Amino acid sequence: MPYFLIFIFLTLAFWVGNAAIALFLGVSMTFLVNLSEDFFTKRIGTKLLQAGIVFLGASISIPEVVEISGNYLPWVSFFVITTFVISLGIGRMLKTADKQSYLLAAGTSICGGTAMTVVAPIVKAKPEQLLSSIAIIFILNALAIIFFPLAGTWMGLSQEQFGIWAALAIHDTSSVVGAASIFGDKALEVAIVLKLGRTLWIIPLVLFSAWYFREKRSGTGLPIFVVFFIFAVILNSLLSPSEQINIYLKQVNKVFLLSGLFCIGTQINQSALQRISIKPLILAILVWSMVIIASLWII
User: Given this model, what pLDDT does residue 170 score?
Assistant: First the structure.
């Protein structure tokens, strides 16, 4: 039964071709069928999405990356640091548990669930704190995939402006990709380049957290798909593929994107939603609202 529904839902997602629909079909799957914690869709969703990002990188050249990142990566860095500090400050004002505030600050400022998962063992966060933080960010990101493209169209943002806005204001890479892909191909390229620049802040985050919490940790925490993305961009610049090949690569990216978002949707469940408490939710919403407004001011 689960496999038949997956086939039907994925076919529908590919036919519609909308990232938000793919995500919510995945969420619907978890409420229709009781999937086990180790069900294959829960394990491969992020990997599919990351593979799609690498294929997108293979259709972008180094000059394009330099043009996009040169003007805005300093703003991305400023946003990361400022958002992290403000999140901790508001968390203290709301008297949210320190470790959960730290998780939400990491997730909101850098890259959602990935950043929170990386720092959770360093700060020795409780499992329920990590799960509820991931659930909160998941809900906000799901809303972003739906409403950001609508808001961008209503405000008359250009492709480049929307890509910058999505990269600055949306937490998870998956949701940045989802929202930007709905808005347009150029928006997706801009959003991915800037978002991956934002993701690189995982390295100083891990080093700072290890020092602050006095926890020794091997490795940098840098996602390997970022390395592959950079390699793919270099390969594109060296080989200079034809426009038709670039179109094929973007089509492959879309298949991985829709499949990945569907599988990520199956990761959420009722028990995770029930762990959400009011103070962390208020913290996440307040900080996100400030980020949305501030990033719009920049563009």
Answer: 94
Q: What CA–CA distance (Å, rounded) separates 116 from 77? A: 18
Residue of 71, 69, 73 whose CA lies nearest to 81:
73
Each residue's pLDDT tens digit, 268-299: 766 666 667 888 899 999 999 999 998 898 77
Domain boundaries, the chain: 2-298
Angle at 294 between CA 293 and CA 297, to 5 degrees: 90
Residue 230: other Cβ atoms inside 10 A: 15
Q: pTM value?
A: 0.75
Higher-pLDDT residue of 127, 51:
51
Please provide the DSSP assignment of the chain as one string. -HHHHHHHHHHHHHHH--HHHHHHHHHHHHHHS---TT-HHHHHHHHHHHHHHHHHHTTS-HHHHHHHHHHHHHHHHHHHHHHHHHHHHHHHHTT--HHHHHHHHHIIIIIHHHHHHHHHHHHT--HHHHHHHHHHHHHHHHHHHHHHHHHHHHHT--HHHHHHHHHHH--SHHHHHHHHHHH-HHHHHHHHHHHHHHHTTHHHHHHHHHHHTT----S----HHHHHHHHHHHHHHHH---HHHHHHHHHHHHHHHHHHHHHHHTT--HHHHHT--HHHHHHHHHHHHHHHHHHHHH-
Separation CA 96–CA 286 (nearest Å): 13
Mean pLDDT (the chain, rounded): 83
